[in-house]
Amino acid sequence: MRYDLVIFDNDGVLVDSEPISNRLLAGYLSELGHPTSYEDSLRDYMGAALHRVHDLIRERTGQELPEDFDEVFHGRVFAAFARDLEPVPGVPGVLEKLAADGVTYCVASSGSHQRIRVGHRKTGLDRWFDDRRIFSSEDVGRGKPAPDLFRYAAERMGVAPERCVVVEDSPLGVRAAVAAGMDVLGFTAMTPAARLGGAQRLFDDMAELPGLLV
């Protein structure tokens, strides 16, 4: 193995949640008087913690989102997850192989702990991720593109940053991993390759991932 730790992003990498959550986010912001298309949401918020939504709306409009914005949005997302969420194609097989080969891995997500766990239970990925392998931006305060989350995950897993590789599908996540001093494999199933500058390798099929780790 080229690396001692594989750090997965969650949304769009492990669970196919980005289309669901970004459509809901665009719709909710538009309801609140902040016209946002699905494409706008992907461009501005994909891979980010919810505080980025508050920050950008405040910066652009001078207005605050409602106090219950996060609660309402999460309620809509979790209801949609319960109906529609699936693992990213190929992910169960990749995790099965990593576990069988004794490869150390974890997930580090901008999403909340609740969001990660809800998604993993729905998709069956919880069998591969116990609490010791789950890290959220809630743990560090500053989400991606700050490097804090990835550095925290590596520290908790007992691995030096330079021995880690991050699997990411968002520009913000790639920036965070690079800033943390880690290699990045850019997953381009949903994101144009040109937006993942900084990744050492790009791939669009999860079946390719094990071969990129050796």
Can you tell me about this structure?
The mean pLDDT is 95. The longest helix is centred in the middle third of the chain and has 16 residues, at 69-84. Strands 3-2-1-4-5-6 form a 6-stranded parallel beta sheet, with helices on one face. It contains 9 helices and 6 strands; from the N terminus they run βαααααβαβαβαββα. With 214 residues, the chain is of the alpha/beta class.
How do you describe this structure in short?
This protein has about 210 residues and is an alpha/beta fold.
How big is the Rg? 16 Å
Count of individual beta strands: 6
- Low-pLDDT runs: none
Give the termini separation: 5 Å
Helix content: 40-55%
Shape: globular
Structural class: alpha/beta
Q: What is the topology?
A:
Blueprint: E1 5-8, H1 18-31, H2 38-45, H3 50-61, H4 69-84, H5 91-101, E2 105-109, H6 113-123, E3 134-136, H7 148-157, E4 164-168, H8 171-179, E5 183-187, E6 201-203, H9 209-212
Parallel strand pairs: 1-2, 1-4, 2-3, 4-5, 5-6
Which features does this protein show?
6 strands, 214 residues, globular, alpha/beta, single chain
